[in-house]
Design a protein that fits this description.
The chain is mostly helical. About 50% of the residues lie in helices and about 5% in strands. The strands form 2 sheets. It has a 3-stranded antiparallel sheet, covered by helices on one side. Strands 4-5-6 form a 3-stranded antiparallel sheet. Helix 5 crosses helix 7 and helix 11 runs parallel beside helix 16. It starts with a strand and ends in an 11-residue tail after the last helix.
Length: about 425
């Protein structure tokens, strides 16, 4: 055990230092020569030398005395042992030398390059991209969580093994698959920024993978046709009124985010030859998640058949600015807060169990899933729902797809149970 042979064929005892001692400034390992090139002799000497080292580890782990004291006592015991080696004449006496008691002061630790100051610069950079206040808040919270974990681990530089330990730490907290994914994605984004600014050479979160079993259990649900029938036919739904109904239908047939629907203005609805709606951040307190979220998309025929344009015309005749009466709530200016609260109450009234049901946001997943099954190309779906397309050909060089071409794509969403024909 603990036997090491160097390239010069001399054997050494090598023992890792306990973490309790490493945390108070001890070296990562103790490596001492056995002064022999003979394995049989080395094995016998190693037993005696290891016993001394392990015994001192036990004593100093309990007392937490400084390394200078440990080194002095270790030198005393090892030098006595080495004299017995030398007197045995079992090997070349020219190899022997006493163990020094001197402890060299370690180089002072340099300031970590990745710290809260770097995170502050990253957040400032994200603010320039005009991402939502909620996104900024979540990025800061999730990245701070890892930096705190890194500090608790006594690490100055992020590493692959540290990122993997952080993943296991999140799993030990029994977080949902979505939370795990969001925390890892936020830190991956932060460390990509760090790599770009040459603070580190490699992003440690590139190697971190999500557990498939947990993903399959906690993946966000989509709406099924039977569940949609229960939803739209229940009195608790109809009691919410016409605006609640229109927002729900927009989520279902346009695949947008809840707050994108709730913050629509009347001027965002275009009565052109191809009626369309624009998701933008031009209006007062309007905001979008990313630059790619700004888009104009055709209005689904199911909305048109149900009289959506008539509703828009009525709101205009009333002198309204907003398409709906929802207002932004909280520091994040969340336009969908009241709608989502009401939607949750409706789901409760119907009997859908929390944690095991589709939600308002699930209409977006349903929309994407239906288009995927219909064979719509990914870059087209990305433009419809306001996602950036990651692939270089479409994402960097591709131009926005014209409205008239997007019509057939959005009509690929064919759940038409509640459209009047």
């Amino acid at each position: 055990m603990y036997l090491l042979r160097l390239p010069n064929s001399v054997y050494y005892t090598r023992i890792s230092t306990p973490s309790t001692l490493r945390n108070v400034g001890y070296p990562n390992e103790i490596r001492l020569s056995l002064f022999t090139r003979n394995r049989k002799i080395a094995s016998r000497r190693n037993i005696e030398q290891s016993r001394i080292i392990l015994s001192l580890f036990d004593n100093y782990s309990a007392s937490q005395q400084p390394f200078v004291d440990f080194k002095a006592e270790l030198a005393q015991h090892i030098n006595e042992l080495r004299r017995s080696f030398q007197s045995s004449k079992e090997d070349d006496s020219s190899l022997f030398r006493p163990l020094s008691k001197t402890v060299y002061s370690p180089m002072p630790k340099s300031k970590p390059l990745v710290d809260m100051q770097a995170l502050g610069r990253f957040i400032a950079s994200k603010n320039l991209e005009r991402v939502s206040a909620l996104t900024i808040k979540q990025l800061q919270q999730r990245c701070t969580d890892f930096l705190s974990f890194m500090e608790e681990q006594g690490a100055d530089v992020p590493s692959n093994s540290l990122a993997m330990r952080y993943r296991d730490y999140l799993l030990s907290r029994d977080v949902s698959h979505k939370t795990l994914k969001d925390y890892l994605a936020a830190n991956k984004q932060f460390f990509n920024w760090c790599v770009g600014h040459e603070l580190i050479a490699v992003n440690p979160f590139v190697v971190v993978k999500l557990p498939l079993t947990k993903k399959s259990r906690n993946a966000r649900q989509r709406w099924t046709v039977p569940c949609l029938k229960r939803l739209f036919s229940h009195p608790a739904y109809s009691d919410q009124g016409i605006q609640f109904n229109w927002v729900t239908l927009i989520l279902m047939y346009q695949g947008c985010r809840p707050y994108e629907a709730c913050q629509l203005r009347l001027e965002d609805i275009n009565f052109a030859s191809i009626p369309n709606m624009t998701f933008s951040d031009k209006g007062e307190q309007q905001h979008l998640k990313t630059v790619s979220s700004k888009r104009s998309v055709p209005i689904h025929s199911c909305l048109l058949k149900r009289g959506f344009l008539s509703y828009v015309a009525e709101r205009r005749s009333q002198g309204k600015t907003q398409l709906f009466d929802y207002i932004p709530r909280g520091a994040d200016s969340d336009w969908s807060k009241d709608y989502r609260d009401a939607f949750g109450d409706v789901l409760d009234a119907i009997g859908f169990k929390p944690g095991d049901r589709a939600t308002a946001y699930s209409f977006r997943h349903t929309f994407v899933d239906e288009l995927k099954q219909a064979g719509i190309e990914e870059h087209v779906t990305a433009q419809l729902i306001g996602h950036q397309h990651a692939k270089l050909t479409y994402g960097h060089y591709g131009k926005p797809i014209p409205i008239k071409i997007l019509v057939n794509s959005i009509e690929a969403f064919r759940i038409v149970l509640y459209c009047k024909t």
